[in-house]
From TrEMBL:
The active site is at 12 (o-(5'-phospho-dna)-serine intermediate). Residues 4-138 form the Resolvase/invertase-type recombinase catalytic domain. CDD domains: HTH_Hin_like, SR_ResInv. Keywords: DNA integration, DNA recombination, DNA-binding. The keyword DNA-binding applies. The keyword Disulfide bond does not apply. This is DNA invertase. It comes from the Bacteria. The lineage of its organism: Bacteria, Pseudomonadati, Pseudomonadota, Gammaproteobacteria, Lysobacterales.
C-alpha cells in the first residue's frame, strides 16, 4: 500500500466556511480529507480529527492549511505531534511552509505552536475584559427569564389563593413544572 496524503480542515463555528481550506487541500492532492465545524480548544472533542489520526498509516502525510486549524494549545499540539511521530507520519502546514520531515520544519512547528497558544491566551484575556466591562454597564448574559415578574405574581396567586396544581399552572403559562417551582420560591 502506498503512502497517502490526508487532509484535515476545521473552522470554529457553523457560520464559517471550510471552502478555502478544502480548495487548498484539494490543490495539494489530498486523497482523503477530514473536515469539521468545531472549536479547536481541545482535540478530544473533535471526532473528525480523531478519525483522521486513526486513519493515518506509517509513511502518510497529514496536510493542514494552518497550524491553528489542528490545535489551539501547545499541549494538544504536542500530543498530536507525538501520535504522528509514533506512526511515522509527516505533517505539512501549507500556509506556513512547515514540513516535519526536516529539522527546520520541526523547529518551526514547535515555535509556531507556542505563538499560537500565546495568541489564543491573549484573545481569551481580551474577551474576559470585554465581558467584565459589559457587566459593569449592566449587560445581562445568559438565557432570558421564562416568566415576567407579573407572571410570577400571577402564578403565586393561582397557587395560594385559587389552589391550582403546579402542572395546571405550568400548562397555563406554557412552561415546565420546574419553572413554576422556581417562580414559587422567588420573594
Amino acid at each position: 500500500m502506498s503512502a497517502a496524503i490526508v487532509g484535515y480542515a476545521r473552522v470554529s463555528s457553523t457560520g464559517q466556511s471550510l471552502d478555502v481550506q478544502l480548495d487548498k487541500l484539494k490543490a495539494y492532492r489530498c486523497t482523503k480529507v477530514f473536515a469539521e465545524k468545531r472549536s479547536g480548544r481541545q482535540a478530544d472533542g473533535r471526532p473528525e480529527l480523531q478519525a483522521c489520526l486513526t486513519f493515518l498509516r506509517e509513511g502518510d502525510t497529514l496536510a493542514i492549511t494552518k497550524l491553528d486549524r489542528m490545535a489551539r494549545s501547545v499541549l494538544d499540539l504536542a500530543k498530536i505531534a507525538d501520535q504522528l511521530r509514533q506512526k511515522s507520519v509527516t505533517l505539512k502546514v501549507l500556509d506556513q511552509a512547515i514540513d516535519t520531515s526536516t529539522s527546520e520544519g520541526k523547529l518551526m512547528f514547535s515555535l509556531l505552536a507556542s505563538f499560537a497558544e500565546f495568541e489564543n491566551d491573549i484573545r481569551a484575556e481580551r474577551q474576559m475584559d470585554g465581558i467584565a466591562k459589559a457587566r459593569i454597564k449592566g449587560v445581562q448574559f445568559g438565557r432570558k427569564h421564562a416568566l415576567t415578574p407579573e407572571q410570577v405574581g400571577r402564578i403565586k396567586t393561582l397557587r395560594e389563593e385559587e389552589s391550582f396544581s403546579v402542572p395546571q399552572i405550568a400548562e397555563r403559562f406554557n412552561v415546565g413544572v420546574a419553572t413554576v417551582y422556581r417562580a414559587l420560591k422567588l420573594p
